[in-house]
Design goal:
It contains five helices and three strands, in the order H-E-H-H-E-H-E-H. The protein has a three-stranded antiparallel β-sheet. Helix 2 packs across helix 3. About 5% of the residues have low confidence. It is an alpha+beta fold.
Length: about 140
């Protein structure tokens, strides 16, 4: 016998939602710390500790709460990151206690426009160094 799924309203009120932030090699650490202080209202030592956890592990859960709180934080984080650290990516998750092992990089669909542009710039630069053969 299967357990019936919780209705959406009950699932949204559940405090098991979270936000995962992914590390990138572009954003300055001080910009990330100021972003965490402003959006999550951490003091500076706590924000530094969280930034270092993301930096060392490739990702970390940076906030938890009910669905409405997390949705509002996602909007605030993305807005603030667009100005200071556009390469940062965030993902909303339903169960922060069971964060699956993920690679240090988010999936390509989660890459910001700036990170994508940097990747394409590297590909184009590499292609420019290739000697192309011309056939008669």
């Amino acid at each position: 016998m299967t357990k019936p799924e919780d209705p959406p309203a009950a699932r949204d009120a559940d405090p098991r939602w979270g936000i995962v932030m992914f590390n990138d090699d572009v954003s300055p650490m001080d910009a990330v710390v100021s972003l965490l202080v402003e959006t999550l209202r951490h003091d500076e030592p706590a924000a530094i500790e969280l930034m270092l956890r993301v930096h060392q592990n490739g990702h970390a859960v940076i906030a938890t709460g009910d669905r409405a709180k997390i949705a509002a934080l996602m909007v605030e984080l993305r807005s603030a990151a667009a100005d200071r650290a556009p390469a940062l990516t965030f993902r909303e998750i339903e169960s922060p206690d069971a964060v699956p092992a993920v690679s240090a990089s988010p999936p390509p669909a989660q890459m910001s426009a700036r990170a994508s542009a940097l990747a394409w710039t590297a590909i184009i630069a590499a292609a420019a160094t290739v000697t192309w053969l011309t056939l008669p």
